[in-house]
Automatic annotation (TrEMBL):
Name of the protein this chain belongs to: Succinylglutamate desuccinylase
GO function term, MF aspect, one: metal ion binding
Cofactor: Zn(2+)
All residue ranges annotated as the Succinylglutamate desuccinylase/Aspartoacylase catalytic domain in the record: 48-227
Alphabetical keyword list: Hydrolase, Metal-binding, Zinc
Organism field: Cochleicola gelatinilyticus
InterPro entries registered for this protein in UniProt: AstE_AspA_cat, N-alpha-Ac-DABA-like, N-alpha-Ac-DABA_deacetylase
Key word RNA-binding present: no
Length: 334
């Protein structure tokens, strides 16, 4: 619901119109009894309007998303012309401290939503976030990266069949918009069940900050806020270089040999059937296997690992002849 209240109360703190406050979302301490707070930055306009929630760092090793939200705060893009923004640059602060994807309990925060009050640490964080912060949101922007060494082209993921989400995705205008089923117990699924429109942004890979990916995330957010007349008059939403490419079907290309992987193309590239994409060699100079595009399409994920085993996913390519199975889609590391 739109923010029309004179006083907004989040995490027990009152935020009146025109205020900008940093709140502390605290669930548990470190072993040393050191307090661990998850900073929540709330910015309100004096003019009523919608509330947009921006989250990153659901996986602690996904730095690009953290940098996107950080820049939005640092540049004061989060200071709305109307309505409210809630920014959480690092939701999984425990994983971030350890430079790891998961919580110290080994659980993936994005697989335990909406969480339980007395469950694992990750589940408790999901529960309190879902109960105390999420209900204030009218729209959610959630920022991720590819898992491990897999580099994702900047992209939005939306559930097929939701025309309003597609409209919002076109407004954000990432280079690619991909139809992707909601994953059970994910943050995006919880938002969908609560009727909160949510765009999930993916770009880059874990433990890396990529300025081009970050720019796509920041620019898209500015266009999104501008659409709702929330972007301050101090900014002008960047015009997109091209319209987002809508992707309906994809498949993984897997290594046919084990060995050293030598990538010959860049992520984002449109390739033709039979185009030379990479080589796989052995360490001894005796084997050289060429990786060829099986069809025309866009390369939306590239494995940057220097070595691979037979069967490892090395490219994610768009196709009209394949669908993403549940197992394959989970490998996208949302």
């Amino acid at each position: 619901m739109a923010d029309n209240e004179d006083t907004l109360v989040i995490l027990g703190t009152e935020i009146v119109p025109g205020d900008v406050k940093m709140l502390n979302f605290s669930i548990a301490k470190l072993y040393t009894s050191t307090q661990i707070d998850i900073p929540v930055i709330v910015a309100r306009s004096t003019e009523p309007g919608p509330t947009v929630l921006l989250t990153a760092g659901i996986h602690g090793d996904e730095i690009n998303g953290v940098e996107i939200v950080r820049q939005i705060i640092a540049k004061k893009i989060n200071r709305p012309k109307r309505g409210t923004t809630i920014c959480i640059p690092i939701l999984n602060i425990f994983g971030f401290l350890n430079a790891e994807r998961t919580f110290p309990d080994g659980r993936d925060l994005n697989r335990v939503f909406p969480g339980t009050k007395t469950g694992s640490l990750a589940s408790r964080v999901a529960y309190h976030f879902t109960k105390k912060i999420l209900p204030h949101a009218d729209y959610c922007l959630d920022f991720h990266t590819g898992g491990a060494s897999r580099f994702n082209a900047p992209q939005l993921r939306i559930h097929r069949g939701d025309d309003y989400l597609l409209t919002l995705a076109k407004i954000f205008n990432a280079p690619f918009t991909i139809y992707s089923n909601n994953i059970d117990k994910s943050y995006r699924t919880t938002c969908a069940k609560k009727g909160i429109p949510t765009l999930l942004f993916e770009g880059g890979k874990s433990l890396e900050s990529n300025k081009n990916v970050v720019k796509e995330g920041v620019d898209g957010t500015m266009r999104f806020l501008s659409h709702f007349n929330m972007l301050s008059d101090s900014f002008e939403a960047p015009a997109p270089k091209r319209k987002t490419v809508l992707i309906e079907k994809t498949k993984w290309m897997r290594a046919q040999k084990s060995g050293l992987l030598h990538i010959k193309i860049e992520c984002n590239k449109h390739v033709e059937k039979g185009e030379f994409l990479a080589t796989i060699t052995d360490p001894f100079g005796e084997m050289r296997h060429k990786v060829i595009a099986p069809n025309e399409g866009y390369i939306i994920n590239v494995n940057h690992a220097p070595i691979v085993y037979q069967g490892d996913a090395i490219f994610h390519i768009t196709t009209v002849n394949a669908t993403v199975s549940e197992t394959e889609e989970d490998e996208l590391h949302e």
